[in-house]
Amino acid sequence: MMTDKPCSASSMLGLYIHVPFCSQKCLYCNFFSVRYNDVLANKYVCALSRHAAKFKGKKIDSVYIGGGTPSVLSLRQLQQLSQSLHGTFDISEVREFTFELNPESVSKEKLRFLREIGVNRLSVGLQSVEDMSLKFLGRLHDFKTFCSVYDMARKENFDNINIDLIYGLPNQTLRDWEQVIKKTLAFNSEHLSLYPLSVERNTPFYRSNVITCDDVQRHMYDRAAEDLANKGYIHYEVSNWSKQNRESFHNTNYWRNFEYLGLGAGAAGYLGRERYKNIEDVSRYVDLLKDGCNVEIENEYIDGKIYEVETIILGLRLLNEGLDVSYFKKPKHYSVLLECLEDGTLKIEYDKVKLTEKCVFIFNHIASKFV
Fold first, then answer.
1. Distance CA 242, CA 162 (A)
2. 246 and 317 share a domain?
3. Residue 35, φ and ψ in degrees, nearest 5
């Protein structure tokens, strides 16, 4: 029986910490980030400690430190962040602790420290194996640097690594993409996240009129899905593949519409039936917390109606898990479900509604029907 209360597997929460610093902003990126500055980063880490204190004692089951580029933080800053994390929250039962990094800002010392503090999953922004493509995207690393960092991570005993890739670049052919997949698969990583290049407003790509092609990206997506399946990867979410039992636990709980804390400038959270977003201004975030003020700039109460829509849209992303058919009880949602079953975009297996394999690439179009 479906309830309109936000669901949770337990009383524990996910914790997301946003580190909004980058050495250089990529040309396609519209995530909130600023250029790294050591003095400002020191103040920011202190502010994160003050922000975390508002939730002192909360029991956490997954941690995700993302950005930005968390790996640009100095070893000293990472140590301070770790002390705050361990001293504020109950992380005794953390199942997954993910840290995002870019190859150019990683050292053996940083990797070793991350391992020591309990990080058990890395997410590495490779994006492409072709140096020309990396330069086009505004990335600071080359493929050789990635190879070196990946090897270092394995030597430091990281046995759960995600690799991010971007496909559908202008002038990138299907054959080019096949080679990217082939070279990436050679690393035998536990997880892969594949994203089509999207030209977003307020990015250099948008201002310079970079154009992508949906049809080409669709062919690339289909080819990747086929090649990864042949190598034993499970396509468990629209943009994510993993080896058996290596799905991202933290991210999967987002798609299950579970609650999570969001710390840091620009971070979002979902707690006590309320979604919130923090101010996207690092200096203001620091000053507000220093003065004991609230840093949330957006708050939305999640009533039963909103919760049902969000749960449908998020839950359909989980390709194997699907969503219980009881979530489609509202007349509009039931009507859309019948329409999608008839046109073959959705299917029902053992009372679970799932996307059909041929329609995964057009997920956004299907999901919009339920809004």
1. 9
2. no
3. -70, 140
> Which residues is 355 bridged to in the sheet?
346
User: How does pLDDT run across 312-350, given as a tens digit for each residue?
Assistant: 999 999 999 999 999 998 999 999 999 999 999 999 999
CA–CA gap between residue 216 and residue 218 (Å, rounded):
5
> Residue ranges of the alpha helices (H) in 30-119?
38-53, 75-88, 108-116
Residue (of 364, 298, 361, 273) closest to 32 by Cα position: 298
What tokens were used for 333?
A: 């949602």
**C-alpha to C-alpha distance for 87 and 22, rounded to whole angstroms:** 27
Residues 181, 110 within the same domain: yes
* Secondary structure tally for the chain: helices H, strands E: 13, 17
Q: What is the pLDDT of residues 234-250, one digit of tens each?
A: 999 999 999 999 999 99
Unique residue bearing structure tokens 């597997």: 9
Distance CA 296, CA 276 (A): 6
Query: Six-digit token pair at 356?
Result: 């059909």
Question: For 19-46, what is each residue's pLDDT tens digit?
Answer: 999 999 999 999 999 999 999 999 999 9
Q: Is the CB of residue 216 less than 8 Å from the CB of residue 166?
A: no
The H or E element spanning position 226 is helix 214-230
Global pTM reads 0.95
Residues 312 and 256: their CA atoms lie apart, in Å, by 9
| Strand 191-196 versus strand 234-237 pairing type | unpaired
Provide the terminal-to-terminal Cα distance of the chain, rounded to the nearest Å: 22
Within a domain: residue 281?
no
| Helix H or strand E encompassing 167 | strand 161-167
Structure tokens at 199: 């030209």
Residue type present at position 264: G
How far apart, in Å, are the Cα atoms of 269 and each of 56, 159, 187?
A: 16, 29, 34
The type of residue at 132 is M
For residues 215 and 319, state if they share a domain.
no
Task: Report if residue 66 sits inside a domain.
Answer: yes
Q: How many residues can be counted in the chain?
A: 371
Which of the listed residues 222, 255, 288 is the one where a domain comes to its end? 255
Domain of residue 90: give its range: 13-255
Q: How many domains does the chain have?
A: 2
Structure tokens at 160: 């759960």
